[in-house]
Amino acid sequence: MKKVSINHFSGDAVDLAKFLLGKLIEYKGHKAMIVETEAYKDDQASHANKITPRSEIMYSTHGHVYVYLIYGMYHCLNFTTNKGERGAVLIRALEPLEGLEEMHKRRKTDKIHNLCSGPGKLCQALNITKEINSTKIHDKLKLYHYKEIPEEDIHATTRIGITKALELPWRFYIKKNKFISKS
DNA sequence: TACTGGATTCACT
DNA sequence: GTGAATCCAGTAA
After folding, report:
1. I want to staple A74 with a disulfide (CB 3.0 to 4.6 A). Which of A91, A120, A159, A175 is the partner?
2. Where residue A159 falls among pLDDT bands split at 50, 70, 90?
3. Among the CATH numbers 3.20.20.10, 3.40.50.300, 3.10.300.10, 3.40.50.620, which is that of A6-174?
4. Is pTM beyond 0.85 here?
5. Which nucleotide is closest to A56, CA to C1'?
6. How far is the CA of A71 from the C1' of B4 (A)?
7. Cα A155 to Cα A87: distance, rounded to the nearest angstrom
8. Is the Cβ–Cβ distance between A64 and A18 less than 8 Å?
């Protein structure tokens, strides 16, 4: 399998969000395909809106892993992008491929579609924690080309920005994929 | 130093 | 459909 080049992470977050669909994540012996993503850049509701020690990585790097804790209980996996500008792509759902037994154990469920169908769920299933925050892609978490997703199979949704009349962020998912999140 | 609230999930009704 | 769990980054003082 061919590694995804870091060069892909120097462009716009929206482009990257779309590009990442169908790519394969390998981490700690687990393999899973990305089926749902969300792009963040100028949205007031996102960490990308302001430079802080936590979000600094989104300004200063591209092609890095950005993991943070939400609601005190769940981790969210992001990739930084947009060289020279703020931006990140949140991974919202995965299709599990290998390492399912451990995923079931961690998630405490026997339903396969409940393993990685949400940002918090997939981090729990793959044991992704802040331990890999700010590491480079391919350093600990690896990313490979896996499946080409035709344009017509990609669904894009928008959300109106909180204070700006911008349609941000852009959420992308693979149509008819049973592993996408419900929300 | 203290307070506030969130890029979520799950149990319960 | 609603609310609780839970903790730390960000902010104000």
Report:
1. A120
2. low
3. 3.10.300.10
4. yes
5. C9
6. 12
7. 21
8. no
